[in-house]
Design goal:
Blueprint: E1 2-5, H1 11-23, E2 27-32, E3 37-42, H2 50-54, E4 59-63, E5 83-85, E6 88-90, E7 96-100, H3 107-120, E8 124-126, H4 144-157, E9 161-165, E10 179-182, H5 190-196, E11 203-206, H6 213-225, E12 231-235, H7 253-260, E13 265-267, H8 269-273, H9 276-288, E14 293-297, H10 315-332
Length: 334
Amino acid sequence: MVVILKPGVTTEKRNQLINWLNAQNLQVHISEGAQYTVLGLVGDTAHTDMDLIASLDIVDSVKQVSDPFKRCNRKFHPDDSVISVGDLQVGGGNFTVIAGPCSVESEEQIVAVAKAVKASGATMLRGGAFKPRTSPYDFQGLKADGLELLKTARAETGLPIVTEIVSLADIDLFEDIDVIQVGARSMQNFELLKELGHISKPILLKRGLSATLKELLMSCEYIMAGGNEQIILCERGIRTYSDYTRNTLDLSAVPMLHELSHLPVIVDPSHATGLSRLVRPMAMAATACGADGLIIEVHNDPLHALCDGAQSLRPEEFDSLMKDLDALRKVVLK
């Protein structure tokens, strides 16, 4: 249920209503919009007298929210959320490009790629230190050492770092990481999501391999229910009958998620296609359909990459793409 207050309601009257709602065993989520204040009610509202609330002189309207996801619902928070990562802002009209290798392999590699993507206009650095792989025999990442190398690259370039967590046991290692990524395989690791809800740090939540949008938003709700509302959603392709690409990039998810939720949505064309030659057209398409940003894999030597070299752009290819994206956005934003 959401309670929309009239413009100009005093803080005293608003707090009186909130205190009364709390006394009904309801949690109140406050969203200050450009014109209206929205109170999102979480809990058992079955016995709440909607007519009584609607009759109050400070209330504009009362609406039921039938969707199971509440806090990430646009009805709870009509205006776009903007997620701060240091001095950077994700969402709200800002376009964010996160770039870097699939996995951190060495200090020389990660620093070189970081410098290259920054020079081309990337605003954050991605790189995997912990790598969940389909085969137990594949490279699993440098783990804690990889995190330290990412911090070295951040010190060299100033780029905030984005990297994936795969286990609750490692959460203390991520204290100095700027954005924690929850990968597709962990989207429904609910114990991990609960713990991430208790920290004050941006979370990049990727859609699962076969997850519906509702399932993605319910996973988001697990994090937000713990108190952490700094979430960036990521569409990275889903598994379908396609036999020529790694996954199928569901670009319809971008406008649909914007309609359903107030959170920013970025797109990963690298994992979606698995082929470097398809990254550019899918990145352009994602930008044109309203994505708030992109996360792209870039490697200085894809042929010898320890992980996902086939889908990685070379630095010069990434630089060319960034120029094309800049030109495209000037057209799209007109």
